[in-house]
Design brief:
Length: 699
C-alpha cells in the first residue's frame, strides 16, 4: 500500500469513527432555538422564503445557513434525522480538511490532531444541536478557505492572483454568510502565511479583501446583536476592566475543558465579575504573561506553541466579552463558542502525541499503537455519551438543571417542556424556582401566568402577568397572556386593551389576533372578529395553529351567511389536517347546500372511508349521489345506512325517493311506511307516501 493510499484509508477510518461516535443523534429531535431556526420560522415553513432570507433580518446574520435549512425543509420536511445527518457529515468532512491543512503546514501527527479535534466531546454541542449547523457549515467553508489559501501562497515567491486565491476569498465569504463568528479569518490567514514563511512586507495587502468582508460582517453582527437580538441592558453593562477580567477567565476556562472535558454543561454557571478584587485579575495577568513570552520566543522552539496559542486567542476574540453577545445573558461561556478555536490546542496536542510515540525507547509496536489509539478512543466514547443529552428538550434541560441548578433559563425551558407534556404543576414549580434565581423577570412571570391559565387558575394568573407587563411593557407575549387572564375574569375592556397593545408591539402576532377575535365574537362584533381572524390566518405558520384559526374563521363566516367563503376555509383545514372528520362533514354539507354535488359526494366518500360504521355518512353520501342521478349507487348507500341503523327515518324516506324514481313503487311505499313508524309525522315520508298512493290509485 502506497503512503497516499494509507493516508486516505486512515482518513476514511476517521470519518467512520466520527459517524459512529455521533450515531446516537440519529434518534435525536429538535431542541432549544430549533423552533426559531427551523420548525416555526416563517422563512422556512411559512409564507416567506429565500427572498426574505437574503433581503431582511428574518435570517438574523447567517443567511447561507438559513438557506441550507430552507433546502433541507424542501427535501425532508420536519423529520429531524436528516438534519442531524447533515451536521455529522459536515463535521466529518471538516476533520478530513483539517487533516490536509495540518499536513500542508507540516505539523507532526496531523492525523492525530484532526482526530482529537473531531472526536473531542466539546464539539458535541455544535454537531448534535440542529441550530448550530451555522457552526459546522461555517467551519467547513472556513477550513476550505485556509486550504485554498495555503495552495496559493508560495514561500519565497511573490504572490500573484490565481484561481486558488479567488477560491479562498469565495470560501471566506461563504463562511461568514454561514456564521459571522468567522470574522477573524483574515488574521488566521496571516498566521498560517507567517507559519509557512511567506508573509513579507507588501504581501499583507493581499489580505485586505478578506479584511473588508470581515469588517462588514462585524459591523452588521454588532448591530444585529444590539438591535435584533436585544443584547443590551443590565446583563451586558460591563466596564473595560470587567471585560478584561472576563476575557482572561474565559480563555483559561476553554483550555481547561479541552484538557478535562468533565463536566460539560449546556448552560454553564454565569460568573460574577469583580474587577475591584486583585485576585480576579490573575487569569488575565497570566494570559498576558504567557502571550508575551510566546511572542518573544516565536522564532525559537516555542514557535508551535505561539502558533497554537495565537490561533486560539484570535479565534476566541469575538466571544471573549469585549463585544456583547445575547447568550451572555445566561452564561459567558458555551462549548459551541470554541468550536473553531479548539483546533489550535488540539492540533498541538496531536503533534505532542505523535512526538511522544516516536520518541525512544521505541517499545513494542502493539504497545505504541495502543498508546496512540487510547486518547482518540476515550474521546470518542465521551462524545457518544454526551450525545445522549441532546435526544430531546426534556433530556437537555433535565441534564442542565441537574448539573447547574442555578441556570434559571434551564428551569424555565424545562417548565415549558413539562407544561407541554401536561404536567402543569411540575412546570409551575420550575417557574417559581427560576423566579427565585431571577426575581421579577418578565419572561418567567409570563410563563408562570401561562401555566396557571392552563390549569384553569385564571384569577391567580392575573397577578404574575400584570407584574410581567409592568416589568417589561414592550413584551408582546406578556400582553397577550394578560389579555387571556383578564378575559377569564370578565374584565373585557382591559383584556381588549391588552390584546391591542400586543398587536401594536407586534403587528404580525397571530395568537393575539386570534384571541382578540374571540373576544370580539363574545361582544357580538362579528365583522371585526372576521377581519382579525383573516389576518391571523395569513400570518400563522405552525400547521396546528393555522388549522385552528381557519376553522374558527369558517364558523364565523358561516354564521354571517358567507357559506362559500366558509367552505374555502374548511378546505384549508382539511389540507392541514386530512383526518379531521368534523370539518369534512361540515364542508360536505356546505358543498351540498351550494349545489356543488360532485364535490360534496367526494367529501362524503372520504367520510365513509374514515367512518364505515357511520349511518349518517352513508346516508349523506346517498343523498349526494341521488342529486347526481346515480340512483343505483344512492340506493346501495341508503340500504347500508339502514343496515347500520334500522330505525333511521331519513334514510328510509330518501331510499323511498330513489326507489320511486326507478319505478319501484311498492318498495318505495314500504320504505315510507317504515320511515313513519320510526318517526311519525315525518314530512318527506308522509308527503311522498300520499303521492305514491295516488299513483297506485289508493288516495
Amino acid at each position: 500500500m502506497s503512503p497516499a493510499q494509507r493516508t486516505w484509508g486512515l482518513m476514511a477510518l476517521l470519518v467512520a469513527t466520527v459517524v459512529l461516535a455521533y450515531s446516537p443523534v440519529r434518534h435525536a429531535g429538535f431542541i432549544w432555538d430549533d423552533d426559531a431556526h427551523v420548525t416555526t420560522n416563517p422563512v422556512i415553513i411559512g409564507p416567506l422564503g429565500l427572498q426574505e432570507i437574503w433581503t431582511s433580518a428574518k435570517a438574523n446574520y447567517f443567511p447561507l445557513t438559513m438557506t441550507s435549512f430552507w433546502v433541507q425543509h424542501a427535501l425532508w420536511g420536519l423529520n429531524p434525522a436528516p438534519y442531524h445527518a447533515v451536521g455529522v457529515i459536515l463535521h466529518a468532512g471538516c476533520s478530513v480538511i483539517l487533516w490536509l491543512i495540518l499536513r500542508r503546514l507540516r505539523v507532526p501527527g496531523a492525523g492525530w490532531g484532526a482526530a482529537l479535534w473531531a472526536l473531542h466531546p466539546v464539539q458535541v454541542e455544535s454537531v448534535a444541536w440542529i441550530s448550530e449547523l451555522k457552526n459546522t457549515q461555517a467551519c467547513f467553508f472556513f477550513l476550505l478557505c485556509v486550504w485554498c489559501f495555503l495552495r496559493w501562497v508560495r514561500p519565497g515567491a511573490a504572490p500573484v492572483a490565481s484561481r486558488d486565491y479567488g477560491l479562498a476569498l469565495g470560501c471566506a465569504v461563504l463562511a461568514i454568510l454561514s456564521k459571522s463568528s468567522t470574522v477573524m479569518l483574515p488574521v488566521v490567514l496571516g498566521l498560517v502565511w507567517w507559519w509557512v514563511g511567506g508573509l513579507r512586507g507588501r504581501g499583507v495587502l493581499w489580505l485586505l479583501p478578506f479584511l473588508a468582508v470581515s469588517l462588514a460582517a462585524s459591523g452588521w453582527t454588532i448591530w444585529e446583536q444590539k438591535v435584533n437580538s436585544m443584547a443590551s441592558g443590565p446583563d451586558w453593562q460591563h466596564s473595560l476592566a470587567e471585560r478584561c477580567v472576563l476575557a482572561g477567565r474565559v480563555v483559561w476556562f476553554y483550555l481547561g475543558k479541552l484538557a478535562w472535558p468533565q463536566p460539560l454543561i449546556f448552560i454553564y454557571p454565569r460568573w460574577e465579575i469583580a474587577a475591584a478584587e486583585v485576585l480576579a485579575w490573575t487569569p488575565f495577568a497570566a494570559l498576558v504573561a504567557v502571550a508575551a513570552v510566546l511572542t518573544w520566543k516565536r522564532d525559537t522552539s516555542a514557535r508551535p506553541w505561539f502558533m497554537a496559542g495565537a490561533y486560539f486567542a484570535v479565534s476566541l476574540f469575538p466571544v471573549l466579552g469585549f463585544f456583547d453577545v445575547f447568550f451572555f445573558r445566561y452564561s459567558y461561556v458555551a462549548d459551541h463558542f470554541q468550536h473553531l478555536a479548539s483546533i489550535g490546542p488540539l492540533a498541538l496536542a496531536g503533534a505532542g502525541l505523535a512526538r511522544a510515540l516516536d520518541s525512544p525507547p521505541a517499545g513494542a509496536r502493539a504497545v505504541r499503537a495502543l498508546g496512540a489509539l487510547a486518547p482518540a478512543g476515550v474521546l470518542a466514547v465521551l462524545t457518544w455519551q454526551q450525545c445522549a443529552i441532546y435526544r430531546n428538550s426534556d433530556s437537555l434541560w433535565s441534564d442542565t438543571v441537574a448539573r447547574n441548578p442555578r441556570a434559571w433559563i434551564a428551569h424555565v425551558n424545562l417548565g415549558v417542556e413539562l407544561l407541554a407534556a401536561g404536567r402543569a404543576d411540575a412546570a409551575i414549580a420550575h417557574y417559581r424556582a427560576a423566579l427565585e434565581l431571577r426575581p421579577g423577570a418578565a419572561e418567567i412571570q409570563t410563563n408562570l401566568g401561562g401555566a396557571l391559565l392552563k390549569l384553569g387558575r385564571v384569577e391567580e394568573a392575573v397577578a404574575p402577568l400584570e407584574a410581567a407587563v409592568r416589568a417589561k411593557p414592550e413584551m408582546a407575549d406578556a400582553q397577550n397572556s394578560l389579555g387571556l387572564a383578564l378575559a377569564g375574569v370578565a374584565r373585557w375592556a382591559e383584556a381588549e386593551r391588552a390584546y391591542e397593545t400586543a398587536l401594536r408591539l407586534k403587528p404580525d402576532f397571530p395568537a393575539a389576533l386570534y384571541n382578540l377575535a374571540l373576544l370580539l365574537v363574545q361582544g357580538a362584533r362579528l365583522p371585526e372578529a372576521i377581519v382579525r381572524l383573516e389576518a391571523a390566518a395569513r400570518l400563522a405558520s405552525d400547521p396546528a395553529t393555522r388549522s385552528v384559526v381557519h376553522r374558527r374563521l369558517a364558523e364565523l363566516l358561516a354564521a354571517t351567511g358567507r357559506v362559500a367563503d366558509s367552505a374555502g376555509h374548511y378546505e384549508t383545514v382539511l389540507r392541514l389536517s386530512p383526518p379531521d372528520v368534523e370539518a369534512r362533514n361540515v364542508l360536505a354539507g356546505q358543498l351540498f347546500q351550494l349545489g356543488r354535488m360532485a364535490a360534496a359526494a367526494a367529501q362524503y366518500e372520504v367520510l365513509v372511508q374514515q367512518q364505515p360504521a357511520s349511518a349518517d355518512a352513508q346516508q349523506n353520501l346517498g343523498s349526494a349521489l341521488l342529486q347526481l342521478g346515480r340512483l343505483a349507487d344512492a340506493i346501495a348507500r341508503y340500504r347500508e345506512a339502514l343496515r347500520l341503523r334500522p330505525d333511521f327515518a331519513d334514510a328510509h324516506a330518501n331510499l323511498a325517493i330513489a326507489l320511486a324514481r326507478t319505478g319501484r313503487i311498492d318498495e318505495a311505499v314500504t320504505e315510507c311506511e317504515s320511515a313513519l313508524r320510526a318517526a311519525p309525522g315525518h314530512p318527506v315520508a308522509g308527503q311522498l307516501l300520499g303521492e305514491l298512493r295516488v299513483t297506485r290509485g289508493r288516495p
